[in-house]
Design a protein that fits this description.
This protein has about 240 residues and is of the alpha+beta class. It is built from 8 helices and 5 strands; from the N terminus they run αβαααββαββααα.
Length: about 240
């Protein structure tokens, strides 16, 4: 097919693509607005060795993974729930908490998600404070040269909404609608691919020139217009 053939298809069935894209975008936007918003609060902890020699620095990198393990325990979750007076159990708390470590800068990050921004901030801040207190007690039992200081880099300040994102979902839905609409148009064209509507289409299908055409008799039961003909019927007029 040539470019002008594709342009003809777009002029004829382009409305299908537009309608499907608009419906998909509106549907995605409406579905996003119906979902309950979820907020995330984050707090970062700095883990610093008492001295920056090769051995202790490598120990800190390894111990970061152990810190992540200790933070994601039901024991720690229950302590946070009790201190912050949260209305949830330890399973629900751990589902909403994410702990990550970064050995390149000796840091830990606590992310808490909740449908309430205040609750998300309380979860992250309380867990960070309890963990810092635990490490301070542990340091009191160690030699000063072997201590590992854990401190809060900055307190939790806000808890932005992370989902749903209606505008993003509407754009994604619109793009998906364009794709689906294009597939629908392609399918409709494929169903009518054996119907010849013009002398040019006859020449392309049969590979021979059209010398003339005999007007068909109008059908009383059908509205006036071009009648659909199969290649075999039109081929008879070209020979």
């Amino acid at each position: 097919m040539e470019i002008r053939d594709y342009l003809k298809i777009l002029r004829k069935r382009g409305w299908i693509i537009i309608v499907v894209a608009v419906l998909a975008a509106v549907g995605a936007f409406g579905f996003s607005k119906l979902q309950a918003p979820v907020y995330r609060a984050s707090v970062k902890l700095s883990v610093e060795p008492a001295r920056y020699d090769w051995g202790l620095s490598n120990t800190v990198k390894d111990i970061l993974r152990n810190y992540v393990l200790n933070l994601r325990t039901h024991k720690m979750a229950n302590r946070v729930i009790e201190r912050a007076q949260l209305d949830m159990n330890s399973y629900q708390f751990l589902e909403r908490i994410t702990i990550s470590s970064d050995s390149s800068n000796f840091s830990l990050q606590i992310d808490a998600e909740s449908r309430s921004p205040e609750e998300a901030k309380l979860m992250a801040q309380t867990m960070a404070e309890i963990f810092v207190e635990d490490r301070q007690r542990w340091n009191q039992e160690q030699d000063k040269r072997d201590r590992i200081e854990v401190r809060i880099v900055d307190d939790v300040r806000d808890a932005p909404q992370i989902r749903p994102k209606p505008l993003f979902n509407a754009i994604a839905g619109g793009l998906l609608g364009l794709l689906v609409g294009g597939l629908v148009v392609f399918f409709l064209e494929w169903l009518e691919s054996d119907i010849l509507r013009s002398p040019e289409s006859v020449e392309r299908a049969l590979g021979i020139p059209v010398l003339g055409a005999i007007p068909g008799q109008p059908d009383k039961d059908q509205p006036r217009g071009r009648s659909r003909r199969r290649p075999s019927e039109l081929a008879q007029h070209t020979t």
